[in-house]
Automatic annotation (TrEMBL), chain A:
It comes from Kiloniella spongiae. Residues 180-408 form the SUF system FeS cluster assembly SufBD core domain. PANTHER family: PROTEIN ABCI7, CHLOROPLASTIC. Residues 8-172 form the SUF system FeS cluster assembly SufBD N-terminal domain. The lineage of its organism: Bacteria, Pseudomonadati, Pseudomonadota, Alphaproteobacteria, Rhodospirillales. GO terms for biological process: iron-sulfur cluster assembly. This is Fe-S cluster assembly protein SufD. NCBIfam families: sufD. Belongs to the iron-sulfur cluster assembly SufBD family.
UniProtKB/TrEMBL annotation, chain B:
PANTHER family: ABC TRANSPORTER I FAMILY MEMBER 6, CHLOROPLASTIC. InterPro entries: AAA+_ATPase (IPR003593), ABC_transporter-like_ATP-bd (IPR003439), ABC_transporter-like_CS (IPR017871), FeS-cluster_ATPase_SufC (IPR010230), P-loop_NTPase (IPR027417). This is Cysteine desulfurase. Residues 2-246 form the ABC transporter domain. The lineage of its organism: Bacteria, Pseudomonadati, Pseudomonadota, Alphaproteobacteria, Rhodospirillales. It comes from Kiloniella spongiae.
């Protein structure tokens, strides 16, 4: 059998090489968790086509690429760091190759916000961070989360106290420095105190075009009557592998509002699981993705309605050119006691080339009887009649296509309430259209 | 201005136009009438350059230039405008954005200065006022949720903004009640001028009461079977198309 450079064994070797220098290596309970999770990963291995949640996303391109063990060394300062929001309306935290950089991050956080780096917390060993917060309920189905738990080297622990309404957006930059073959297993925790409101925008960007592997796991709790707007701009270079798993717990009367914009990565897989276990909890899982060349973008969501009167809205739109592939898997589970659930899901993909492909798997599992649920998935080519109509008025083929694709995607951005961010997403969409070959192949 | 010579065209290998000859001069209004399926919309689409239609013989000359190989946007730039039988809805693109992009694309094609935002707004306000169209129509997505009448009025607005040399109106009267039809016809008549021409395509004579043609042509089975003055339309109204194709109208 041919061994690929980054098969299961390679990652297990990363663990062996780095376990004595990972943060918190003097904490017995942590070493135990890491050991347990690498054993779990060893049992399951990397996801394959047979793994239930990975049917449509193959990690073969990742396996063919060599990667090295996580490094905990201080990141080098970089000249230009991308920033999405201006400094008057945001505070920015900076992670380089998965490691927090205190020096490059804004020093003052808004009142009511605390941020600690995971590495610091584990090394100091004096936090209330415990086993509970680092174990996932379904780790058996999430081998990459198990790998993350075994190898996590840094991340953020962000807490927003109760009764604060943040005016400034918290921007978190995840920058790839350009170092080849690097792997980042970041572990993040966000908690929003009751009756608070916060906006967090995460930005994946890079210096250089080298391949790296980012495997993030984020646990979020939005407490009673709080609202978290969680946005992501995934604009990594087109060699990067960007895998993330986000687990959200939404409290009574609280809202988790997310929007994902993906233009980057060779392979991007974003898994979001939301538990609506308290009355009047709500979530919005919206997004747009754009792919070209051999990019692969996977959005996999699961929403568990566990109690009466919970709501979920999900609108995702994608545009694929070249040989790009899109995957949307959306599961909505309405548990028996979750009467009066409202769940609406839609995914629409536009294929700009004959070789682009999309796989979708919407799943509704409803065990309650008094619910309003809908889902719809469509995919197709650009509307030829509309193209001809626009061209007959003087627009070139490219202009007409661009206008139609833009309108198609912009519709999904309507869900974003923050006007500045809405504009930012719209600009990203037009930039993508301008810079990417968008002629039908 | 427009010279169509022995034009043959096919769709999906099916021959539809079988030798059309037609000349339209500056300042003239021509009408093409014919039974359903006779090839009227095909002719309109071929003039506008739709690529599912293949010209197999003959040619189309516009101001002396052979345009049969030009892209649709190039023909638009040359001054050809097609009001579609079924105007297309474009969700998410407002009329203003669409008109501005279209006008500036045509101006670029002709080597003219583009209009900036201010100039465009001023121009378009003038046009809506002239045609009695409410400004809120500009903010709406192109044809989305428009009634049949609104769609056709939107065509007239586009025509007024783009100011084509040749406007081809394909069944502009279909689906309109008499009041809407009058409004649309009035719009078209406002745009009649010495330097441009109009080709009205219709199945029924009634539109021609309001847009009075200089010449009427009967198209049947892919060929022009007869041409005459405006009285020909009245004759067709009375007798139908049975004489021309051996099939009922
Ligand atoms: N895109 C197409 N594909 C196949 N056949 C077509 C297409 N468009 C028109 N036709 C056929 O060509 C003939 C003429 O159609 P059309 O030009 O629409 O007629 P009219 O507008 O006079 O009613 C009809 O037989 C019609 O079925
Ligand atoms: Mg027709």
């Amino acid at each position: 059998m041919v061994t690929l450079p980054s098969d299961k064994e390679a990652f297990i070797a990363h663990y062996d090489q780095s376990k004595d220098r990972l943060p918190g290596n003097n904490l017995a309970w942590l070493n135990e968790i890491r050991a347990k999770n690498i054993a779990l990963f060893n049992d399951i291995g990397l996801p394959t086509a047979k793994t239930e949640l990975w049917k449509f996303t193959s990690l073969n391109p990742l396996k063919k690429q060599a990667f090295s063990a996580p490094e905990t060394s201080e990141p080098a300062a970089n000249d230009e760091l991308p920033r999405l929001m201006d400094s008057a309306s945001s505070v920015r935290l900076v992670f380089i190759d998965g490691n927090y950089s205190d020096a490059l991050s804004d020093s003052t956080l808004p009142t009511g916000v605390t941020m600690e780096s995971l590495a610091a917390v584990l090394d100091n060993g004096n936090s209330d961070l415990n086993q509970e917060r680092l174990s996932r309920p379904r780790a058996e189905e999430q081998p990459l989360v198990a790998l993350n738990t075994a190898l996590m080297a840094d991340g953020y622990i962000l807490s927003i106290s109760k009764d604060v309404s943040l005016e400034k957006t918290i921007e978190i930059l995840h920058l790839g420095s350009g170092k080849a073959e690097s792997t980042h297993h970041t572990r993040n925790i966000i908690s929003v105190g009751s009756s608070s409101k916060a906006t967090i925008i995460e930005h994946n960007a890079d210096h250089g075009e080298n391949a790296y592997f980012s495997n993030a796991a984020t646990d979020i709790s939005v407490n009673e009557n709080a609202t978290l707007h969680h946005y992501r701009v995934q604009a990594s270079n087109k060699s990067a592998f960007l895998v993330s798993s986000t687990e959200v717990e939404v409290g009574k009367g609280a809202t988790y509002d997310s929007f994902l914009l993906n233009t980057g990565a060779r392979l991007a897989r974003s898994e979001i699981n939301v538990s609506l276990a308290a009355e009047n909890s709500a979530c919005h899982l919206n997004g747009t993705y754009m792919g070209t060349d051999d990019q692969h973008c996977d959005i996999t969501t699961r929403v568990d309605h566990k109690t009466p009167h919970t709501t979920c809205d999900e609108v995702i739109k994608g545009v694929l050119a070249g040989r790009a592939r899109g995957v949307f898997q959306g599961k909505i589970i309405v548990h028996e006691q979750a009467q009066k659930t409202v769940g609406n899901q839609s995914h629409r993909a536009m294929l700009l080339s004959d070789r682009a492909e999309v796989d979708v798997k919407p799943e509704l599992e409803i065990f309650a009887d008094d619910v309003i649920c809908s889902h719809g998935c469509t995919s197709g080519q650009i509307d030829e009649d509309a193209l001809f109509y626009l061209r007959s008025r003087g627009l070139s083929q490219e202009q007409a296509q661009s206008l139609l694709v833009n309108a198609f995607l912009a519709d999904a951005v309507e869900a974003v309430q923050n006007e500045d961010l809405k504009d930012l997403f719209l600009v990203r969409i037009s930039d993508w259209l301008e810079n990417n070959p968008n002629k039908p192949a | 201005m427009l010279e169509i010579k022995n034009l043959h065209a096919e769709v999906d290998g099916k021959s539809i136009l079988q030798g059309i000859d037609l000349n339209i001069n500056k300042g003239e209004v021509h009408a093409i009438m014919g039974p359903n399926g006779s090839g009227k919309s095909t002719l309109a689409n071929v003039l506008a350059g739709r690529d599912d239609y293949e010209v197999t013989e003959g040619g189309i000359f516009f101001d002396g230039k052979d345009i049969s190989e030009l892209e649709p946007e190039e023909r638009a730039g040359e001054g050809i405008f097609l009001a579609f039988q079924y105007p297309v809805e474009i969700p998410g693109v407002t009329n203003t954005t669409f008109l501005k992009e279209a006008l500036n694309a045509q101006r670029r094609y002709r080597g003219e200065e583009e209009l900036d935002g201010m100039e465009f707004v001023k121009m378009i306000r003038g046009k809506t006022k002239e045609l009695g169209i409410k400004d809120d129509m500009l903010k709406r997505a192109v044809n989305v949720g428009f009634s049949g009448g609104e769609k056709k009025r939107n065509d007239i607005l586009q025509m007024a903004v783009l100011n084509p040399k040749l406007a081809v109106l394909d069944e502009t009267d279909s689906g309109l009640d008499i009041d809407a039809l009058k409004v649309v016809a009035e719009g078209v008549n406002k745009l009649r001028a010495e330097n441009n021409a109009i080709l009205v395509i219709t199945h029924y004579q009634r539109l021609l009461n309001y847009i009075v043609p200089d010449q009427v042509h009967v198209l049947a089975n892919g060929k022009i079977r007869r041409s005459g003055g405006k009285e020909l339309a009245l004759e067709l109204e009375e007798k139908g198309y049975a004489d021309y194709s051996g099939e009922a109208a």
